[in-house]
Amino acid sequence: MAENFRRRGKFEEVAFVFPNAPQIPITVIAFDDLAQQQDQPGILRSRDYFHSLIKAEIDKGIPSDRIVLGGFSQGGSLSIFAGLCSPYPLAGIFGLSSYLLLGPSLPQLLTPKNKSVNTPTPIFMGHGDLDPLVKLEWGQETAKVLRELGWTVDFRVYKGLQHDADPKEMDELEEWLEKKLPSQC
User: Which of 24, 46, 130, 165 is the most exposed, having the fewest neighbouring CB atoms within 10 Å of its CB?
Assistant: First the structure.
């Protein structure tokens, strides 16, 4: 994604940070009941790691309201969760083919400070209608829950798209990002 933006002269003043997931053993699960299958301690550790990345960018002089968290699939799901819980106001959050981690626990995990800091943060979600891995319904339910909690969610469905990215989706994400991170050059 970043290379594509660079080739087209987009977001030239933006630093893209792509963290790697830790090397840990995993168990393949059926995603039929997400609420019971999630590793809360691991998700909370990953959230804290994302927050440390945000803090590192702030320490470099980047205002937090010029930072967007986002990703695809699990990366998007973690970006949404970490963004919602962030102690810093963010420019935006996006998740492509993503769902809400720890959904039933989210209200208890949000402190009054991080909820008030980030409720104004806009969220972009894109999802294929034929995604066999992260079902469309999970994305739709995520958007519904987040709206009920006070967030503004721009949820878009891409016809014929499975668990993948789509050129139209990338164009619409780019437009959304341009609004959230207008050029300062």
Answer: 24
